[in-house]
Fold each of these.
Amino acid sequence: MPKMTNQQKYRLIGQAEPGELRQLAEQAASSIWRQQYHIQPHVGLLNDPNGFAYHNGEYHLFYQWFPLGTDHGMKYWYHLTSRDLAHWQDAGIGLEPGGRYDSHGAYSGSGIVKDGQLHLMYTGNVRDEAWTRHPYQCLAIMDDNGTLTKRELPVITEVPQGYTEHYRDPKVWKNGDSYWCVIGAQREGLTGAAVLYRSPDLLHWEFEGELKTSLPSFGYMWECPDYFELEGMGVLLLCPQGLEPEGDERQNIYSSGYLLGSPLDLGTREFQHGAFAELDRGFDFYAPQTTEGPQGQRLLVGWMGLPDLEYPTDNQGWAHCLTLPRELSIQGGQLRQRPAAGLESLRGESLSLTTRLSSERQRWAEAQGTAYELRLNLSSWQEAHGTGTFGVEFRVGEQEHTRLSYEPGTGRVTLDRSLSGAPVNPAYGTTRSCVLNPSNRQQLELRVFVDVSSVEIFVGDGEEVFTARIFPDPSSTGIALFADQGSADFDVSFWPYPTGAIPRELPEHIIEDGKVKS
Ligand code: FRU
């Protein structure tokens, strides 16, 4: 695919050639890798989740959307709603860029409910004639019909001294009578940071200064910071760019992780925290955003993709999807992530299997598909020479499979996509691993969510998660269990997931003329 020029990339839908969007949408719809229950763009490129909020009995979730290609171009916010975090309704275009303060994209931001209305704070991306970037922090308010109206002027117009034009992704919360937001920043010395602002009303913001962490030089830019408190602790999510790989960690082009510590001191901006830990151990995870649900639960959604990489659907009119929503908790000084409870409503009729395998591989003939949940409990392992490996292969075909394995001797869990199908950025490796802590456990539970072109694996009740896109042939539908060099008990359940959980077609009024609402 020839790369688009900037002129082509920074067009609004209304500036597309006649039939261009429809043609792209038709191409996307016929892709063999369209997801069945993950939020994906009808057409074009999806990236960060934005504006995630619970309001009037519904979750609102937006995503960064470039409609006219699979490069990163003119970014819109596309809007969906849900009551259970499993079934999603299309709410059409949320924010359209192209104004004076977002002429080159409505970049990432967050949502908060104030005076009964959802307020969205986001970065307006502007490029001048010399193609220099000017970020503005903007505000939009949603009315009762779901229509968003942007404030005419940005609420933060300046980048304070000491920072470059990489200054974006406001994440807002309320504490006491004040609103606070963190913004991802790059210092003039080309190191990443998160800065803090305070406001009485979401309109007038005071620059407080930088968050004081113990990572003064940690990558060249921090994107998408998110701060919240959970179970009495402070949690800062950040996406540092420019970290070197370290053992099993930081293997992806850019990282996404968290710092866990004492609650942030809003007066001094001191944040006392432990080591940076990755949120996800897979290949494709970035720019997560959290919100608080109606029961006070902390929910997270991520982008199942990364910037600056190529993916096999790039020449099929669409790219990327969001992760399933996860619910966060803290245990043993670590974040735990479990699939959001509402997802169980997607389960179809279950199949189950209990077996003991000894140095063998067994196909599970009854259970197969391209969209399902699999729960695997491994126990009572005995290793032949201290090196047993146990696990499951899914999307198994004649030549293909994706393999998830556990080595009790070392505590190592590995996801291998070297034979998954169409290669995805093999220069960044084809396996991802982590070592579970502590490793002397007696059993291990794995919850595996397979969709047409992705897998998410929750290890040991949310201790670790592996997220990956995979691009197998549609005929690779098999599941196999294996025990290498040892024996173990396998207790497995399988639930097919239905179609219909996500909207399937781009609303006609958008295709027709790029209208924001019908
Ligand atoms: C992260 C990011 C954000 C930015 C947005 C633009 O993926 O680069 O920092 O706001 O994407 O789409």
Note: Helices lie at 6-9, 20-29, 508-513.
Amino acid sequence: MTVHGIHHVTAISGDAQENLDFYAGVLGMRLVKKSINQDDPSTYHLFYADAEGHPGSDLTFFPWAHLAPSRKGVGLTTEVPLAVPVGSLEYWQERLMRYGTFLGALENRFGERSLTLSDPHGLELALVESDDARAFTPWEQSPVPVDKQIRGIHSVRLWERDLAKTTEFVTTIMGFSHIASENGWHRFGVAGAGSGKLLELREVPGGQRGQWGTGSVHHVAWRMPDEASELALRQQVEEAGRRPSPLIDRFWFKSVYFMEPGGVLFELATDGPGFTVDEDVAHLGEQLILPPWYEPQRPQIEAALPPLTAPQLPEKA
Ligand code: ZN
């Protein structure tokens, strides 16, 4: 039993409205679910994806503005590359500069053109040009034209103190194969590899342990076709000594959590039932969705959450 790609990435942001303005406004992704952190109902859980919330297109945030900024280091996912159409990076460079986004250089990574950037709270992203086939539904109401829109999560980049331990785990337990190495990065792929099915590791021997905070990734979730295969892989993870959580029902998918040997938090998540299980696809993300056990407290929960308004495009700094 193996994973078959990236399901979603969850990160920690600062102010919720600034997060919405950037991801729905500047990057033009669709807010497909507006919910709460199931362990901390005073915090939103915001989900950005393609128009239908396909598994693998979904970047989610806990806005914890009171946290200190994260510290980059080993045992963390240090960058989230997003897939964009081939030939779109000049459009993106111009758009991101117009809205004052902090941009890095245009690079060539494993033969693909890439542009690095930081979101308003310090999360490191990249846009990577790729024409690999993947499930994608354009968001017609996006401020970004359909032929330039983000297709989903391309890969994840992790810093590790000991490359060998994580490599052994992801190849023997999760189904990854080594694809190529370049400039200190080791690319692994699963299920045929390509956009949405890639994991990139960098060894930083003696590196300081990274710390969660605003601007850090919280966890990476990997796709499982169904609950039975997820439980089978959970068993393999347990036999490898990684102490996985029980299966947890997240309504839109079922989840198992564990730490890979280098300390990065991983999740297994089923492809179904998906974000349309509790909202019509035409109205995804418009209402605050609560887990049923929180419904009786809806008035208090809504009153405690900061109000969110339609995304505003920031003025250039
Ligand atoms: Zn998750």
Note: Residues 6-304 form a domain with the 2,3-Dihydroxybiphenyl 1,2-Dioxygenase; domain 1 fold (CATH 3.10.180.10).
